[in-house]
Amino acid sequence: MAAGVSPTAVSYALRGKSVGLSIPSETRARIIAIARQGGYKPNRIARDMVLGRQSTIGLVLAAAGAGTSVEAIPALEPILAAAGYRLVVVVLPSDPASARDRVTTLLHDGAAGILCCPAAMPVTSQVVAASCPVIHLPPAPPNRC
Question: Which domains are assigned to the chain?
């Protein structure tokens, strides 16, 4: 360890915790500085597991040209990021079994909710059955897919 402390101390310092472990402020600052220098970025999925929450929003789209508007993606990402969420886009293949597999993976990875374009509606029952909130998006304007 570059900071000369235990992995537990590093974990506590990076998470801002000190319960059960007294970490001097100078040590905490040294750990954080070393982590920044090394380009440390927290693993959001691992953190969600520890905290018992979900921070992924899935955007389920059908193949391009099937009533799918991708123009909303650049607008959605910063809004979700500001609220502590990340956007995962899933483009469904035309094969229903493969489409179900992709949605199953998204749900298994802990999606907090699903945004669903009109052409991807067949997966809605799968999402609802998994007790995951779903929002149906309006259709894309004609000739804007």
Answer: 7-41 (no CATH), 48-136 (3.40.50.2300)
Exposure b/e, 87-126, CB count within 10 A at least 16 = b? beebbbeeeeeebeebbeebbeeebbbbbbbebbeebeeb
| Strands in the chain per DSSP E | 56-61, 86-91, 111-116, 134-136
> Which SS3 state, helix, strand or coil, does residue 81 take?
helix
Q: What is the pTM for the complete model shown?
A: 0.60
Q: At what angle do helices 7-15 and 25-37 cross, to 10 degrees?
A: 90
Quote the CA–CA distance of 119 and 61 in Å, as a whole number. 7
For the stretch 79-110, pLDDT in tens is 988 988 888 888 888 788 888 888 888 888 88
